Structures are given as C-alpha cells and as structure tokens.
Amino acid sequence: MKAIRVHRFGGPEVLAFEDVEAPRAGPDQVVVRVRAAGVNPADTYMRAGAYSVKPPLPYTPGSDAAGTIESVGADVRGWSVGDRVYTARTLSGAYAELALATAAQVHPLPARVSFAQGAGVYVPYATAYRALRQIANARGGETVLVHGASGGVGIAAVQLARAMGLTVIGTAGSDAGRELARREGAHVVLDHHDPKYRDAVPPVDVIVEMLANENLGHDLRMLAPRGRVVVVGSRGDVTITPRDLMTRDASVHALLLWNVSDADARDIHGALGAGLEDGTLRPVIGKELPLADAARAHEEVMKPGAYGKIVLTP
Questions:
Q1: Has residue 165 got a pLDDT over 90?
Q2: pTM, whole model, 2 decimals?
Q3: Residue 220 maps to which CATH number?
Q4: Residues with Cβ within 8 Å of residue 181, at least 6 apart in sequence
C-alpha cells in the first residue's frame, strides 16, 4: 500500500510517499480503509521534531482519518467490515491507504457526514469540546471569544458554542474567513489584522486561544470577572501581567489531547457523535489534496488566513 513516511525530522520535504507493507489486525484491533486523512498543525510540529510527543523513526504521520472498516481482529465486538468510521488516533498513522487502530480508537461516522468531513472531526472538534466544556466549563448565556474562528478548531468552537447557548465573537484574517465564521454561527466577527479590533470586544467569559504567543497578554485584559482563557495553540514564549488576572479573579488553562483520560474521551466522542448525527456539528473542508501532496499540505496548514480543514485523499 501507499503511505507517507518520515525517516528523519525536518521540513515538509522529509515527507516521503512510499510503498509499505499493509497492516494486519491483531486480536483487539481493526484495519481502516482510509478515504481521507486530516492535516493538523500538530502534525507539522511532530514532523519537525518540535512536538512534546516525538515518535520513533520512521513513522507515518496523522491521527485523524475517516473511511470504512477493512478487517477486524478476533476479539473485536461491535464493529463489522464495511462500517463507516472516523479515527481518534491510530497505531500506524493516518496518512496512508490503510490504517491500523485499536477498536477503541474508531468511532461511528454517520451517513450524512462525508469521509472528508470525518477526517476533520477528531483533533478540531475534540479540542474545541474539551476547551469549552471540560476545561472552561462554559455555560449558556456566557460570551466566548474564538480567535482564528475560520480554521478547523475555530469552526468547531463556534458551532459547539452556539449549540451550548453562548454568545460567540470570532476573529479571522480574511474576508472569506470572516464570512465563513458568520455562516457557521458567530454573532460578531472581527478582523484580527485590524490593530483596533480589541476595542470592539466587550468583557468576555471565555477565550479560546489559538496563538497564545501573540495574543495571551491582550486576552487577559478582555476577560470579564472570573473569565477563563484556554490555550490550544502557541508558537513561542509570551510575557503577561499577572495583575490582569488578579484584578478579575481570572485564570489561564491549556490543553493537549494526548492527556485526555478514558472517561473524558467517552464524554467527548459521545457528544461529537450526537452532534454529527443531528447536523449540529458540520466540519468544513477548505482544501482536498492527494496523499502524495502531503508536503504541500503541511505548508498550507501553517499559512495565515485559515479556511476550514485540509485533508489528504489516498
């Protein structure tokens, strides 16, 4: 089968399109025929060797895939060949024609959700749900500011926040991105390239922060009393003024999906499954590229002006 392999850490050029041996399911495992694989910024950090989790070389990147069950292990119950699924991590990597996963790493993909959309579920929507519900404990009637509301996590956060009854303020860096954020449910959308956009933000209860190294110091001054910032992305260091937290009894939190407990994972995927099934959650695909173009996908996902998810199709 074809797969992307990384034999050394480095730039996008280290992503090699190769023939590899097809995986076989062990007793408690399944093999998924990948119809689409999601590309996330974390994939690029891992490829560069700069992520908190460094896989042993060589490896196949990717945690997010969608497709059909190709084969099941002898001890697997509840899954059959042909079932539509999305993955929440895999054992062998998602950038491939086939992916090996444990039975617990696959989740039902409703018929109304395309495979490309399914590849945009796990990291974006699990991150947004964990940030809003499990960490910030956001409540109906509160106001949330979603930075980068036109990207994968941003769109997920907007849709989830609307479903939870929050007032949603989103930011985006392009006209198309701002229109997308509005379409997906943001009540107010601002241009984060405008140096005065923060003046238009009232005190907010929750901030979902995608680029803490640029925004965190400013975020603290936009919080309402007992406000919460949840950091889901950062590309460097930042200086803050603790008094901005102290005067508001506010707090800063952060998350990494690798830290999710089994109980929290059940909560996450129960909620996401219901939202996908009833149409509340609607992954937006901005670009589909062939699997062989993984290097280009890694370049695109790090560019400003995010618009939906980038997925690879084997």
A1: yes
A2: 0.96
A3: 3.40.50.720
A4: 146, 149, 150, 154, 155, 158, 170, 172, 189
